[in-house]
Structure formats: structure tokens, C-alpha cells
Design the sequence.
């Protein structure tokens, strides 16, 4: 039986094995990019508050300006 088990892959790039120093990432680069993704807001789930301001009649398909 194999003595060494496969190492987990980086949770960000899913390409490189995780380095202990950067768990659960493979490198500092992936760690920073993952953090930046959250800070950037591109990964947000409920980020439509801005569009809601002009969304009063969005449920009415016959609304015309
Ligand atoms: Zn990575």
C-alpha cells in the first residue's frame, strides 16, 4: 500500500498541493488573491443593494419611462 497519501490541493487554484506555511493555500500568492477576492466584493453573495434603489417597479414588466 502507498505510504504517502496525496496532499490536499490549494483551495484557491486547485492546482498545486498545499504548503504547510500557507495552509490551506499553496502559496502566499494564492492566499493574498483569495483575501483580495473577498475584499474586492466580487465574491459577495448579497451585493445588490445599489441596484435596489431603482428597483421599485422591476416586478412590473409594463413599466415605461
Ligand atoms: Zn494555489
Sequence:
Amino acid at each position: 500500500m502507498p505510504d504517502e497519501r496525496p496532499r490536499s490541493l490549494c483551495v484557491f487554484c486547485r492546482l498545486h498541493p498545499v504548503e504547510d506555511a500557507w495552509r490551506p493555500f499553496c502559496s502566499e500568492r494564492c492566499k493574498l488573491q483569495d483575501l483580495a477576492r473577498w475584499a474586492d466584493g466580487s465574491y459577495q453573495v448579497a451585493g445588490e443593494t445599489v441596484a435596489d434603489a431603482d428597483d421599485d417597479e422591476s416586478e412590473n414588466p409594463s413599466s415605461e419611462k
